[in-house]
């Protein structure tokens, strides 16, 4: 355990960030899986944009995910 006040605070902040990031990761994966099952592309794109906006993933990675998702949804529809 940390002893200094600043180290204690940093540990608490890291723990809170970890919980937020795990939740974002879970949301992202769940959204992608649901989109592939049912055609909910606009909702998925919105969720991906929000996650990228918070800085969890880079904006270019978000674009790449959305592009691949749209491509997969399009090919599954045929």
From TrEMBL:
Gene3D superfamilies, alphabetized: Ribosomal protein S20 (1.20.58.110)
GO cellular component terms listed in the entry, alphabetical order: ribonucleoprotein complex; ribosome
Pfam families assigned: Ribosomal_S20p (PF01649)
Signal peptide, first to last residue: none
SUPFAM superfamilies hit by this protein: Ribosomal protein S20
Stored InterPro entries: Ribosomal_bS20, Ribosomal_bS20_sf
UniProt keyword list: Ribonucleoprotein, Ribosomal protein, RNA-binding, rRNA-binding
GO terms of biological process kind: translation
MF term (GO), any: structural constituent of ribosome
UniProt family annotation: Belongs to the bacterial ribosomal protein bS20 family.
HAMAP family xref list: Ribosomal_bS20
Protein's job: Binds directly to 16S ribosomal RNA.
NCBIfam families: S20 (TIGR00029)
Protein name (Swiss-Prot/TrEMBL): Small ribosomal subunit protein bS20
Species of provenance: candidate division WS2 bacterium ADurb.Bin280
């Amino acid at each position: 355990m940390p002893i200094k006040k600043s180290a204690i605070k940093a540990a608490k902040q890291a723990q809170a960030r970890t919980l937020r990031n795990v939740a974002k990761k879970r949301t992202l994966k769940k959204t992608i899986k649901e989109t592939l099952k049912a055609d909910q592309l606009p909702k998925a794109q919105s969720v991906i944009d929000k996650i990228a906006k918070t800085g969890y993933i880079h904006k270019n990675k978000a674009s790449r995910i959305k592009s691949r998702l749209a491509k997969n949804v399009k090919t599954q529809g045929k």
